[in-house]
Amino acid sequence: MDKINAVITGIGGYVPDYVLGNEELSRMVDTSDEWIMTRVGIKERRILTEEGLGTSYLARKAARQLLQKTGVDPQTIDALIVTTTTPDYHFPSTASIVIGKLGLKNAFGFDVSAACCGFLYTLDMASSMIQSGRYKKVIVIGADKMSSMVDYTDRQTCVLFGDGAGAVLVEGTTEEGVGLQDSFLRTDGIGLPFLHMKAGGSVCPPSHFTVDHRLHFIYQEGRTVFRYAVTDMSNDCLEIMKRNDLTDDDVTWIAPHEANLRIIEAVTKRIGVSLDKVMINIDRYGNTSAATIPLALWDYEKKLRKGDNLIMTAFGAGFVHGANLYKWAYDGE
């Protein structure tokens, strides 16, 4: 029996219409366009402002575009996985809501929680499902409504985050040398003190006290997170390159987690890959957590060519981090 390789066969994406630019933020909190651009390289971010809409809305918009672009019969989808830090509810899963809204009658679904590294983890998982031969078509969605837990009085964090979703269709092929080639994924478990939300979970359930003391927002110790992100993403990329005998000339694209332009620049410099090989859209979307990498693939799809070597790398709360080596399977045009 021929070996089954797992390949991305299409990409969909969605960002809300509302644009929150640096000038508007400077009227909300003590900051400026110069301060934000110098430190993180973000010019604007998209925000889902309509009441009653959450991450499942972003996810299904991206998935619906994906289905339309690929022309795939929705009833042939075997599974749908949503990776997110901002689910609509504690339960049911956001994936189940998306499946219901899209009318996928033959699919099962579940959520994955791996913070900003979620797309890497979930793509690896979906690829294994395809390679097993038990599933033919799996949709992977990275989606986050980060604005739902941003404190817009905290200038250290409110400038960073935006909302969005990216979706890919993963299918099987017997063609050799394409698809997911290798993954190096790690969870350190040391990151809790430095990046978290203090309340809302089972350790500290919601109460009048937690609301009054603003404990339902992102807490981050930026310098510590920055240092670990640069080190881990760099080392993970170098490990992937070493394991697969790749030089910087062999790497066509780096698709990094879009958290901070300075992090991206530092990682690129450490691994010796020129910045013109790096997918960058943080200036327009900000940090959309699990959605950053699929949104970058969505933005750069037309530039991708069959056989391109992509290294995807990310870092997030936990700390979680890793890198995937993926050989692109079709011409983006």
Describe the structure concisely for a colleague:
The chain is α/β, with parallel strands linked by helices. It has helices at 22-28, 33-39, 55-70, 94-102, 118-131, 208-212, 222-243, 261-271, 282-285, 292-300, and strands at residues 5-14, 18-21, 44-47, 79-83, 108-112, 137-145, 163-173, 179-187, 195-197, 218-220, 253-256, 309-316, 320-327.
Textual characterization of the structure:
It is built from 10 helices and 13 strands. With 333 residues, it is an alpha/beta fold. The protein has 2 domains: 173 residues, Peroxisomal Thiolase, Chain A, domain 1 (3-Layer(aba) Sandwich); 148 residues, Thiolase/Chalcone synthase (Peroxisomal Thiolase, Chain A, domain 1, 3-Layer(aba) Sandwich), CATH 3.40.47. The strands form 4 sheets. It has a 5-stranded mixed beta sheet, with helices on both faces. Strands 8-13-12-11 form a 4-stranded mixed beta sheet, with helices on both faces. A two-stranded antiparallel ribbon has the order 2-3. Strand 12 and strand 13 form a beta hairpin. Helix 3 crosses helix 4 and helix 7 packs parallel to helix 8. 50% of the residues are buried.
Give the strand line-up of the largest sheet.
Answer: 1-7-6-4-5
> Which stretches of 5+ consecutive residues score pLDDT under 50?
none
Proportion of β residues?
15-25%
Reported CATH architecture of the largest domain: 3-Layer(aba) Sandwich
Number of domains: 2
Shape, per Cα inertia axes: globular
The helix content, as a percent range, equals: 25-40%
N- to C-terminal distance = 32 Å
Largest sheet: 5 strands, mixed
Estimate the mean pLDDT confidence.
98
Count of helical regions: 10
What is the alpha-carbon Rg in Å?
19 Å
Kindly identify the CATH topology of the largest domain. Peroxisomal Thiolase, Chain A, domain 1
Q: What's the CATH H-level homologous superfamily of the largest domain?
A: Thiolase/Chalcone synthase
CATH class of the largest domain: Alpha Beta
What string gives the helices and strands in order? Answer: EEHHEHEHEHEEEEHEHEHHHEE
Total beta-strand segments: 13
Class by helix and strand content?
alpha/beta
